[in-house]
Amino acid sequence: MLQISRVDHVKPPEINNLTYSLRRKAEEMGGVFDGWETSLVR
């Protein structure tokens, strides 16, 4: 299992581009990108 962590502001165009890149890389490596996890910070 590989786990990657980073902190970003939520900007839909940037998140969409990053999601596409991660999904493509996971497929190239024989894996599956299973989505995002987040927490709400106030």
Oligomer kind: single chain
Radius of gyration using CA atoms only: 12 Å
Structural class: mainly alpha
The helix count comes to 1
Terminal Cα span: 31 Å
Spans of 5+ residues with little confidence (pLDDT < 50)?
none
Strand content: under 5%
What number is the mean pLDDT? 86
Globally, the shape reads: globular
SSE layout and pairings?
Elements: H1 12-28
Give a verbal description of the structure.
With 42 residues, the chain is an all-alpha fold. It contains one helix and no strands. The longest helix is centred in the middle third of the chain and has 17 residues, at 12-28. It is globular. The relative contact order is 0.14. The mean pLDDT is 86.
In a few lines, what is going on in this structure?
By secondary structure, the chain is mostly helical. The protein contains 1 helix and no strands.
Key descriptive features of the protein:
42 residues, mainly alpha, 1 helix, globular
